[in-house]
Amino acid sequence: MTEPLDEEEYERPRLGSAGPVRVRVPAKINLHLHVGPVRGDGFHELVTVYHAISLYDELSARRGDRLTLTMEGEGAGELPLDDDNLVLRAARALARYTQRQPLARLHLRKQIPIAAGLAGGSADAAAALVACDALWGTNLGRDELAKLAASIGSDVPFLVLGGTALGTGRGERVSPVLASGHSWHWVVAVANGGLSTPTVYRELDHLRDYGAAPPSAGSPERLLAALRQHDPAVLAAALGNDLQPAALSLRPELRHTLDAGHAAGALAGIVSGSGPTCVFLAADARHAESLAKELVDRGACRSAQPAYGPVAGARVV
Ligand code: C5P
């Protein structure tokens, strides 16, 4: 079920396309998220293991005489289409970097919920880089796009890359974790409403100031070793997220979601990134299907769907 992470296909030089160029981009979860102290620039030093899962947004890019963005699907209408929008910022950053005008008509079909801890906005920015690179024929290649991506957001380089990867710095320095071809099966349990990432990081700082935060997830060694074993029970015991206590402090009802997943037979459940989405590890695809249904039947979340990972990053389809 794993999609091949086909570097060659992506790296092949392309001429500028008349469009439309369609790019599919996945959501991410963090299998391990160690948050260090806050730095001078306001970001926290991280050691994380990113994992791209089969829940996708799609961005299409056509030639145009201006830069425009339209949107449909999950959360459309809630996201401002102004200059702060990450998609538009990504398109402008690529245009500046390649010294051309940012001319494109972009259309986003969203399935990844926003402010959910799944890096949906960062995913859309990664999609914009890959789509405009193909539309404009700038042919930067994945590594250079990932470098440019770091200027747009901490998670954006990972979403250009995809797969499973170690993230350090503020999350923007990514190196792939050797792919074994093994697929892991998850249930993505989406909550009502979102959580603001900066608020969740601040809450963790407060909990730590008051000595109320549990010990950190620490080094990712155990998680990385678990990934190599291909045994979901082993992986279940190694998942960890320092932001989880902060998300639970802000949204105590997420405890109910995590408990419901456990009661329904999930091998493990954690808050995804800064939340409020919770992800549950299943034994296999069929288990993920039944778990998702059970979570919905128990009213434990707004929606629940099976997903698998790792999958490729932002890619022309
Ligand atoms: O990099 P990005 O713009 O996605 O980060 C959003 C916010 O999340 C930052 O402004 C910061 O408040 C918080 N953050 C952090 N440390 C990180 C990543 C993000 O404090 N490593």
Can you offer a commentary on this structure?
One of its GO terms (molecular function) is 4-(cytidine 5'-diphospho)-2-C-methyl-D-erythritol kinase activity. The structure is a single chain. With 317 residues, the protein is of the alpha+beta class. It has 11 helices and 12 strands. It has helices spanning 7-11, 86-97, 120-136, 142-149, 156-161, 197-209, 221-229, 232-238, 244-250, 254-263, 285-297, and strands spanning 21-38, 44-62, 67-73, 104-110, 164-168, 173-176, 184-190, 240-241, 268-271, 278-282, 303-309, 315-316. Helix 2 links the parallel strand 3 and strand 4 (104-110). Helix 2 (86-97) runs parallel beside helix 3, helix 6 (197-209) packs across helix 9 and helix 7 (221-229) packs antiparallel against helix 8. It is globular, with a radius of gyration of 19 Å. It starts with 6 loop residues before the first helix and ends with a strand. It binds cytidine-5'-monophosphate. Cytidine-5'-monophosphate binds next to strand 2 and helix 6.
Task: Give the arrangement of secondary structure elements.
Elements (H helix, E strand, L loop, with lengths): L6 H5 L9 E18 L5 E19 L4 E7 L12 H12 L6 E7 L9 H17 L5 H8 L6 H6 L2 E5 L4 E4 L7 E7 L6 H13 L11 H9 L2 H7 L1 E2 L2 H7 L3 H10 L4 E4 L6 E5 L2 H13 L5 E7 L5 E2 L1
Parallel strand pairs: 1-8, 3-4
Antiparallel strand pairs: 1-2, 1-12, 2-4, 2-5, 5-6, 7-10, 7-11, 9-10
Helix pairs in contact: 2-3, 3-4, 6-9, 7-8
Bound molecules: cytidine-5'-monophosphate (C5P).
Short description, anyone?
The chain has eleven helices and twelve strands. By secondary structure, it is α+β, with helices and mostly antiparallel strands. Strand 1 and strand 2 form a beta hairpin.
